[in-house]
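Fold it.
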Amino acid sequence: MRRPAAGVNRAHGGAAPPGALDFSAPANPLGPPPGLREAVSECAALGSYLRYPSPSDYLNLLGAVSEFLDVDEDHIVLSNGSAELLSLIPLSLRARSLIVVEPNFGDHELLARATSLELVRVVMRPSDNAFSLDEDGVIRAAKAARGPAVLVLSRPNNPTGLTVDEKAIDRIASSLPRHAWMVVDEAFVDLCPSCRSLGDRDDIVVLRSFTKSLASPGLRLGVMVTADRRALEAIAGSMQAWPVDSITACSLSKVLALKSTALHVERGKEIVRQELPRVTSALRSMGLKAFDSSAPYVLVRHTLPNPQFQRSLLAHGFYVRDASTFYSLDSHYSRISIRSPAENDAILKAIEVVMGWA
């Protein structure tokens, strides 16, 4: 049997072993919204998967997304998940440099390597119980970049949970040279109790994802939001003809139009609001370093290194994210998602056992 070429067998998170409760992939603690399963079944029964997506499919989806996000339709670009946009944007804008606030999404390094982009990392460092952003360092990196540059940061940050203040975003955006674009990945903003989206501004590009808020990673839908005409024209003009598949376009256009869906997301956010401080406090009481977070997950530092920490929890039926794959973090870091109160209680008891407290 032929072995796959290097890189073909890449694996991502969100694939918990059978029988394990998945705390590795953060999502709405309530799961998918009411009506999603029925919408997918209805769209499949209509045979939408037997044809290419039609212009009307995308118009319906675009209208539903616009209403859900409260953003002008003309400022939205649909895509097959925000991860696709993160790869496409530097290419569409013909960037020569990619500046990434780390730790962050690991595919930035793969993109830079594959396309010969200059990769510049601005690393956030922990102080006490929180990570912080070096604003001046970000601005200096952008001004020193070779040729057109794309600056990427996530808000809230994955995996640290830090949410960069909107005023800090304003200061960085206003200080960037004309040949630099700022991209803010808001994949988890809908489940962030203290956040609000930056919206459709003309000085930044915002990425939104429905994977987390709808707890439906198999339905790939991400959107770019911006009022920057240069970016809109360049990126929309580089998209493939069918950026979203028929089943996703059909089902999510129905579900996002329901008032119950927005309420479902708000209820999920409320669970995160209540559970995040409780889980963080419990982890700290066990002797783990749990960092302040405003996202539906907590980054922890533990004395037992990975993969032992991850494997030990897996033996108890819980799967967490080994965070050592994030740049600047080592084997003593893990990311733990916030789920329902009962599920959170269960993993906390397992961590007590693993850490020798019970």
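Confidence is low (pLDDT under 50) at residues 1-10.
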